[in-house]
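Notes on consecutive records. When two proteins share a document, each keeps its own sequence and its own token line. Never mix them. Below: protein one.
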Amino acid sequence: MTEKYKEVLEKMAKYNPWGGSVQATGYERREYLVKITPYMGTRLVKVLVGQRRSGKSYLMRQVIRFLNQQKKVDPRNIFYLNKEYTAFDEIRTHSDLEALFLCYRKEMQVNGKIFLFLDEVQDISSWEFFVNSYSQDFTEDYELVVSGSNSRLLSGEMATLLSGRYVEMEIFPFSYFEFAEVKEMLPGKESYLEYLKTGGLPEMLQLEGEEMRRGYLTGLKNTVILRDIVERHTIRDLPQLEEIFKFLMSNIGSLTSVSNIVSYFKSRQKKSNYETVSAYIRYLTDAFLFHQADRYHLKGKQLLGGSSKYYLNDLAFKNILLGVLPTDLGHHLENLVYLQLKSRGYDVRVGILNNMEIDFVAQKSGIVLYFQVCYQLNSDQIFRREFGNLFQINDNHPKYVISLDDVKFTNYEGIVHLRPWELGDLF
């Protein structure tokens, strides 16, 4: 058995700084590095969560580079394992991981603190036993950074075991500003429309041509659905799961309920039930393909059940796999605004007031912001609706209307008009 783990360790050399090879670190995710590097040097477990291919692995390698270059950590003191690589299929359980790590310690003769980076850790059965053991072992100096593609990575027993001893960060695909910088485009309508079309998946930006992009997205979608949902939850009705995925994509930004989807299936003579549809939607959001925005009663200060809105983690899925209609553009803009607010740490909900809908109520650390989003303010009726809904909110919190108009309108009754590329100025 020892020889088995020695062979795996030899494969690891290709991906670790002690192996002598220089790993690509990609575009520097400065916004995330600013958040995570202050925690390096603490015993807190750093947990990175987000959809597959959103950039978690690159961010891990950027943290490793930070440790090597800025903190002068000996390369031998870095243990990096990415379970998404088929080279490490043999590491299936926490016992395998334990044996591999002990083999690493013996072969590398490491002195001092060891930094463990475990990428896509959910693919290791009972990984939480390993992480809990080494993060709590105060007889040795360890520091752990783990990543996963499921929002419930730290649910249940693991969250209880690590209560107060971990920090979790959600990693999104490239923001508009990151996209513009990578593409060397100036902020403005032209680059924003390009972002609206292309999305922010890092690897997608390197692909040319519709066929290559479609192939990449189809492969990514299948990986997420098959590995993170079907295998994890033993799904028996894959066609229904795929149908729900398409339904939610077709209805981003529209109020949707489980009952609506069940009725949709019945209208097409397909069997379904409330419990199955509800579970499948939860699995799709757990895997970060979608985000759920619940309704929030502004007067009652409470969440409302029933309908919610769903937003894609990246619009490329909808744009390339289903296509775009002119009527979609307003909802797509809404999707991007939602993602930008979420990536800045806001809880984002759909506001309900006097039978009117406020697109977004964004809250964080006592800050409350209200938003209406539309593609263009190109009629008096639309202008009155977007500004009028916000005008009905009787408090002093900031209120904004966001649109893709060529011109910027003056403020109206304290309500500020912004183009989406100006949204970053608020933070």
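Protein two starts on the next line and is unrelated to protein one.
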Amino acid sequence: MPSFQELFGRPPTARASAPGRINLIGDHTDYNGGFVMPVATPQYTTVEVAARDDDLVRLWSDRVSTADHLSSYRLNAERSDRAWFAYASGVTSALLARGCVVRGFDARITSTLPMGAGLASSAALEVSVIRALNDLFHLGLAPSEVARAAHEAETRFVGAPVGVMDQMAAVFATETAALFLDTATLEHERIPLPSGTALMVIDSGIAHAHATGEYKARRAECDRAAALLGVKWLRDVPTSDPRVQSLPPPLDRRVRHVLTENARVLAAREATLAGDATALGVLMNQSHASLRDDFEVSIPEIDRLVEDTLKKPGVLGARLTGGGFGGSIVALTRTRQSS
């Protein structure tokens, strides 16, 4: 793999990294103003950068580039049709829209995160690029501003209708604690995972893409349901609201998932605070059933993977993690026998 020096003929002057995320519980609630509980992955994306004297951006990635090929674009001429590099282009577009003073730069991007596995590799790329540019150009962005700018890059530029969970997790999450996040206010707290437990992530090998397809359809269904119920976010609908049952299908099922999932996340927070791994596992199982039956974002291959994993000794709960239609599952397992 070529070094920065070999690619650009000079050393980097700033470097930053960001992790992927495993969502323990709370999927498709973030863009509805709800609650989530992600955990950082041990895999990271790392960006090395050096400033230029012009408006040219040159990029190399171990995922899509060859040793002798660089991708490039001009600032204020970013394009959203460049696959992997669209996320980096979205970052500079978002920063410029915020009034940040950014010049051209060279960047070398490496990552140990699998793409399309439901572990938020795009958010890790966005956050690591912003962190590197924040240092390189002395932008003075606070951590929450980094997350917001990264979210703007993915939603407004790339066009993926995701919530802010992934970017907040890339900024604030750790590997050993769940990040309980209120996506409406961005208030968050880290809660250590129950002692004697570990998380196991299994990639189904079926890639997904949030910028197209059924993910967009689910987002549109939630937006339509919120409009019919007269609320900004489905999070604002009371769980016992009788109007939910009167919504046309499948909107009634979509809303039911969001409301019950928010309740499960709140219960998962309490279980995690209490160190009750058994209760947390039950909630994870219920969450998968809701994603499968009410939100219909699971697929048969994922369902079989969850079922097989739950048969393993020491597994307390397992569920689809991320947006669905492929990707990975997460399982909560015991690391030792309880005394």
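For the record: The radius of gyration is 20 Å.
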